[in-house]
Amino acid sequence: MGLQLLLLAGGAVGVAAIARRRGWPAPLLLVAAGLLVSPLVPAVPLQPELVLYVFLPPLLYSAALDSSYLRLRDVKRAVGLLSIGLVLFTTAVVGLVVHLMLPDLPLALAFALGAIIAPPDAVAAVAVGRRLGLPRRSLTILIGESLFNDATALTLYRVAIGAAVGGAVSLWEGLWEFLFAAVGGVVIGLALAFLFAWIFQHTRDSLVENTLMLLIPFAAYLAAESVHASGVIAVVIVGLYLGYRMHLRGFGTRLVSDAVWKVTDFFLEAIVFALIGLQLVTVIEGITGYSPWAVAGYAAAVLAVTIVTRFVWVFAVTYVVKVWRRGSGPSAAESVILGWAGMRGVVSLAAAFSISGVAPRDRALLLFLTFTTVIGTLLIQGTTFPALIRRLGVSSEQEQYEDRLAEAAAQQAALESGLAELERLVGELDDEPDEIQRQVIDQLREKSWRRSLTAWERLGGGTGAGGAETPSALYRRLRRDMLQAERQVFVRLRDERRLDDEVLREVMAQLDFEEAILER
């Protein structure tokens, strides 16, 4: 098993690396690769506990940490309508359709299937949308939906499975469990957010703070789930709160945190999407007692209903919003994009694999229908999503220009404030600055002006009149070449045993930070 997991991780990272080099959506390539090799390798079981308690918390936390609380607050109605309203609607519609197709299947299990496949996983959609310049509002809605919809779906799933296994559950009991999970998740998330914020105020150690950051999502998830509250909501609340206050941390904490979570996301997402494709043989072998054509028909029907249901909800809500606001609301292109961004992910599969206490025949069918819906949405919607964005002509170019303009104005204001502070400090000197001190002061002024100039130059795309290289671009290009030459000297001196490796690492870190600033 150890070798198997190592090969899985290595293969997933290799496929993801190819996708990044080619500019392809890594999740889709990983799923396709998993499907291709599944019949050729030993079965790799998808353990629900591994997904829900190991993979899900850090991925949710990282997404929340990187999200904008202010932007999410601006689209809170849209996020609520998708993460709660659409999940409830999808659960009801899919459950009723499955019950009509399979009257022998208990109604509670039909609704359980609806809850399992109700929440989309926006990882693939957001990755494609960012690369192709999807407007910020649409991306924010998709991210917000993916942060909160798992909480709604998993709570509905627990209620439905409880009814299927333990008997009837009243509407009020189900509503109470849903409200308790949501409110409990918020309360626990806020309590832990305040606690860790207080701890961070007294640490001031980037290594300790980032180590705690790795533990926070697991602590929040386990604390909430131990009292039957929503671990998903608890993790998201903590991530949003600490991400909003990240400016209070030291620069070392922010630099390390950015690198740590990028690596964590890349590694976990690669494994998760590869695992989805590798379940092909396991899922198919479990189907017994049904004709292949019948099972294929059920799968196609559930997939079609899942896709259509999202479109119906999105356009119905858009129409109501426009009527309510007298014509103001999402555009048709934005509605189409939100409707087509309904790719399902590993959380749905994990929930299906965790079904227990029901007839093996029913469990195998639910697992198969979940698997085909996840694969179908990923491969059909995921592969056509880029073409749809291009076809609709949706772009964030205007937003990007406004961002650069706002950054340039902010840099100018910060420059003026910094120079005013510099002049105040110079004025407080006891003696007139000598030649060396004046050179230092002039260097500080020049560096501030250069940073402000770079921001204004970006408004022109980094080129001057006639496509000529701007002064800042020239400076960056020449300085990068100089840094490379300096590195070669340090490495040569190390190889000649005239410089110790520890000293080499220190000077290389200084050069690396300078190059990182140039890249920024």
From TrEMBL:
Keyword Translocase attributed? no
Main subcellular location: membrane
Q: Which residues form the Cation/H+ exchanger transmembrane domain?
A: 15-389
Q: Where are the transmembrane segments?
A: 50-69, 81-102, 108-130, 151-172, 178-200, 229-246, 266-284, 296-324, 336-359, 365-389
**GO process annotations (BP):** regulation of intracellular pH; sodium ion import across plasma membrane
Q: Where in the cell is it found?
A: Cell membrane
Q: What's the protein called, per UniProt?
A: CPA1 family monovalent cation:H+ antiporter
Q: Which organism is it from?
A: Nonomuraea thailandensis
The membrane topology term of the UniProt record is:
Multi-pass membrane protein
Keywords from the named record: Antiport, Cell membrane, Coiled coil, Ion transport, Membrane, Sodium, Sodium transport, Transmembrane, Transmembrane helix, Transport
What's this chain's function?
Na(+)/H(+) antiporter that extrudes sodium in exchange for external protons.
PANTHER family on file = SODIUM/HYDROGEN EXCHANGER (PTHR10110), SODIUM_HYDROGEN EXCHANGER 7 (PTHR10110:SF86)
Q: Which Pfam families match?
A: Na_H_Exchanger
The record lists the lineage as: Bacteria, Bacillati, Actinomycetota, Actinomycetes, Streptosporangiales
A single Gene Ontology CC annotation of this entry is:
plasma membrane
Q: Which family is this sequence assigned to?
A: Belongs to the monovalent cation:proton antiporter 1 (CPA1) transporter (TC 2.A.36) family.
Coiled coil location: 405-432
- One GO MF term attached to the UniProt entry: sodium:proton antiporter activity
Q: Which InterPro entries does the record associate with it? A: Cation/H_exchanger_CPA1 (IPR018422), Cation/H_exchanger_CPA1_bac (IPR004705), Cation/H_exchanger_TM (IPR006153)
